[in-house]
Specification:
- The structure is a single chain.
- This protein is mainly β.
- It has one domain: Beta Complex (Metal Binding Protein, Guanine Nucleotide Exchange Factor, Chain A).
- It is built from one helix and ten strands; from the N terminus they run E-E-E-H-E-E-E-E-E-E-E.
- The strands form three sheets. A five-stranded antiparallel sheet has the order 4-9-8-7-6, with no helix packed on it. Strands 1-2-5 form a three-stranded antiparallel sheet, with no helix packed on it. A two-stranded parallel ribbon has the order 3-10.
- The longest helix is centred in the N-terminal third of the chain and has 4 residues.
- The protein starts with a strand and ends in a 20-residue tail after the last strand.
- It binds zinc ion (2 copies).
Length: 127
């Protein structure tokens, strides 16, 4: 499945169909209200747009939320605090994916606060 941001500069690919969607209850996702799909590091690939991504760090600094610096769409995150590390992608970016029939799991016990924001120019990790 191919996912794109709104302006199309960011394109990612997911190699496995999701079995469920997740609505995270953390302070960040409560604001974006996105439905997230999980992918392992081998199931997710950024096809294009590395130079067009900005990244926002929060919580314990292991969550890297990526968004398009042009259209502002939050396309995916990378979390290397889990074992193994994983990606989360914005299901709304995948036009061919109908998330309607998927069961939605709410993660209400996942409260991370924006304790620290790191300037992407100082700490720029794109994947
Ligand atoms: Zn964009
Ligand atoms: Zn979250």
């Amino acid at each position: 499945m191919i996912g794109k941001c709104h302006c199309g500069r960011i394109e990612f690919e997911v190699y496995q169909n999701p079995e469920q969607a997740t609505r995270c209850g953390c302070s960040y996702c409560a604001r974006t209200n996105w439905l997230t799909g999980y992918a392992s590091v081998v199931q997710f690939k950024l096809n294009q747009g590395t130079e067009d991504l900005s990244v926002y760090y929060y919580g314990d600094d292991n969550n890297h939320h990526f968004f398009c610096r042009h259209c502002g769409i939050n396309t995916h995150y990378f979390n290397d605090d889990t074992s193994p590390p994983h990606y989360g992608y914005n299901m709304g970016c995948i036009e061919e994916l109908d998330s309607g029939p998927l069961s939605v799991v709410s993660r209400v016990n996942h409260h991370m606060e924006a304790k620290k924001v790191v300037d992407p120019a100082v700490k720029d990790r794109t994947i």
